[in-house]
Amino acid sequence: xxxxxxxxxxxxxxxxxxxxxxxxxxxxxxxxxxxxxxxxxxxxxxxxxxxxxxxxxxxxxxxxxxxxxxxxxxxxxxxxxxxxxxxxxxxxxxxxxxxxxxxxxx
Length: 106
Description:
By secondary structure, the protein is α+β, with helices and mostly antiparallel strands. 28% of the residues lie in helices and 46% in strands. The protein is built from two helices and four strands; from the N terminus they run βαββαβ. It has a four-stranded antiparallel sheet with strand order 2-3-1-4, covered by helices on one side.
């Protein structure tokens, strides 16, 4: 069964553009290899963090949205954990499209 997922990555702001593209290429390759389909790569750019992470106050955010089986998420997160340059990440299962609101007639 396929579900919609979103993974938000916090990358080191010190990564070069080519290194960032290589990391994202590896992660999207894992998604496609294991039966998922990438629907969106949303690059938020470098933002100021609410608190220091590894003594840095800025980080590069990238959001990935994809459709995948649940087992793929475990493999993707395993690879995220062992990849240098990724400070933090969070993956959430997105809900289905909301139903149309009911209209009340007076």
